[in-house]
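To start, one record:
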Amino acid sequence: MLVPEPLASTLNIPHCTKMALIHDMAESLVGDITPMDKVPKAEKHRREAEAMEYITGTLLAKSTGGHDQGQKLKEIWQEYEDSNTKEAIFVHDVDKIELVLQVMEYERREQTRVNLGEFIGVTPRIQLKECKVWCAELLKERNEFWDSMGLPAEGPDVLDKLLESIQ
């Protein structure tokens, strides 16, 4: 897992990797619900909690030692959902940065603007300073791409607001 310095030395990286994978386990059943889906947060949580219960309680419970493993998975998933640890906050931040990367990939592939403002709109919710800096670098790269295409940067205020929040 890529982690910007000096943040890497303050995180349990293997735990972050586990958490990201466990979070994606629920999404493998309910789908990756994005801001564009307009699903209320409580409903998103309910769907993912139900999926985790199925994975940990139904599927794993049938295997030897599965109940205990299921409990560990649920605890890590709940840690992510509660977002009270630095590791959980980091994994949430990375999840948001990944939305920015998706937009950039679509735009480069299509050589046109992609109307995914909801994806870019998650940037103000990035919490860790190092992740904000990381995301700002991506947004600068996106602006440079549009400059190279002879088009003005879209929504420079997003980058400006992110840079202001770093200070």
The chain has a mean pLDDT of 88. Residues 86-110 form the longest helix (25 residues). The two ends are 26 Å apart (CA to CA).
